[in-house]
Prior knowledge:
single chain, alpha/beta, Rossmann fold, 2 domains, nine-stranded mixed β-sheet, 23 helices, 36% helix
Amino acid sequence: MRSVGLGISLAIVTLSGASIPERDSRNTYIPDMDTHFQMPVFANRDAWLKKAAFLRKQILASAGLLPMPEKMPIHAELFGRLERGSYSIEKVLLETYPGFYLGGNLYRPLGKPGPFPAIVSPHGHWPYGRLENTNQVSVPGRCINLARQGYVVFSYDMVGYNDTDQFPHGDSGPHLGGPREDLWNINTMGLQLWDSIRAVDFVSSLPDVDATRIGATGASGGGTQTFLLMAVDDRITAAAPLNMISAIMQGSGCEDAPNLRVGAFNVMFGAMMAPRPLLMVSATGDWTRNTPKEEFPAIRGIYHLLNVDENVESVQIDQGHNYSKESREAVYTFFNARLLGGKGPVAEQRYRVEQVKDLLARFGRLRPANAVTMDRFVSDRIGEAKQGIERLLPHDQSALQAARTAFFERLTFSLLDVKPAAEEVLSEKKDNLANGETLLIGRLGKGDRVPAIWLNPQKPNPDVPPTLIVHPDGVQWTKSSSRKSGELVWSILDRGGTVMAIDAFQTGSAKASRDRNKRAFTVFNQTDDANRVQDILTALTYLQNRSNATKVNLVGLEMGGVWSWFARALAGPGGNLAADLDQFRAETDQEYLDRFFVPGLRKAGDFRAAAVLNTQDRLFVSNAGREIPTEWIQQSAKAGSSEVSVRATRATDAELLAWFGLGNRH
């Protein structure tokens, strides 16, 4: 968990010339798959490596692979072997999840001594998948040539193609995923990435493969699979993704998942191959047409930061979208140098593609008896996620620390929110009030704009921690409460405490037009609820820094209590929380879809995860519905020797004040 230095003045960023925009950029900049992205500038090697490590977990989380599922022993059926002089072909059925089967073909050299380097080769969105054989693309042609050159090659299906048709692919119809599945990070992209990881496990287990030399290559959607695999799996020692690392088109359908490209895009994913050898093959006739002058220099800049400029190469083919002979020969030459230690260009040899019946693993065969339906697959993944969460229920101090570490990471990569350091927070005073001011806060370089109010007591009491109020009606509610004798805000001020409140994203004066109907909105943009949590984290940093406080009180009312519940979880030590949970039904998927939608939140541990983190300081939970995991709150508090109070009814102002130790006037 991140610690925040509280002694750094916010004036530093004000004096630097940074400013808060007139409109919140989260409403005005809504990227999608066709946005023209720009590669960020990274000041040094460490800055890039830190970002790359974050992106790796972001990819895994969006794919449902954080934490990584338990790997079954390799269960692969190889059969139907054909020998063709200098190479052989076998049919493969690989069980990647219990009851889910990945089909493919294994091509191996004949007449050469091993062990051999291996190539995993996803096919892309060609009509016939791994069987595509045209002038534009020949998947069998490249596999045959690579096997003749001395590689073991595994060519495998995308979901919904050829032998792997348990579930439809779904680019324009039914598919694995949907709003409910988004809560659990269950999607086609994630399944295909897992298939690719298991494909590497499979080839690495073969006795004739040198597991220290594994390459990956594919074009189009297979290019996306290639660069996602190389980004998260360090076993890929050389990679050649074709016609997909682009700043102007990011892919769709099975090439995306919620949260995948929030703050990221394909060029950044491509750069994650550094420092390992990478070949970027592009085409003049598709969305990689700018690669030599835009995407390649951007990625080469990352290789330069790591002092391995020679490990990234670029070749552009004067054709449309393809994996044609010219592109294949560029890949052969690259792998020859990087995996075989050869020199010079490698030309393609003529080849003969086998009949379909000799390549399809399920030709004339039924699916395995234990093959699952798509509904059963979803149910199994949710069941596994729940079991993994339950195993983290803390029973002692050691288990509590392990659970806090695990859940902090999971919630971070679901919400994609981070408590900023003091020097990252901007502020701008707007109007003076009789006892304070209105202001705006935001984060350096983020373009956010959060309306806020700061209220000072007439007689400050240094023993009263400053308080952040979070209410769906925000600043206006706080102003009203401060003017009425006996109400919550009035009473805190009367007892000598400072009060701050915000209009969290899309509430109060922060309400504004936002286009949520763009294609793949959640792939590129945080939800309103995730942004609200971020605004609370930003406000906590501002409050702590301005008041020079080591401890603050956070009060969340109505749905503001739910937002605060998750913000407090990511805030680290130093904050007491009083949260009205508004009778939230924490075990009901539809409740999250209707009232607090954050992709991956249920997979991350939802209210249980936050309960473990929210018991770092004092905790008062009120208006808790029957589905709130009170056992987790109590167990975490017991293991950490912290003070908690949980009740089903809504707390009165007097009860809140008493819990904070403000029951009497100073």
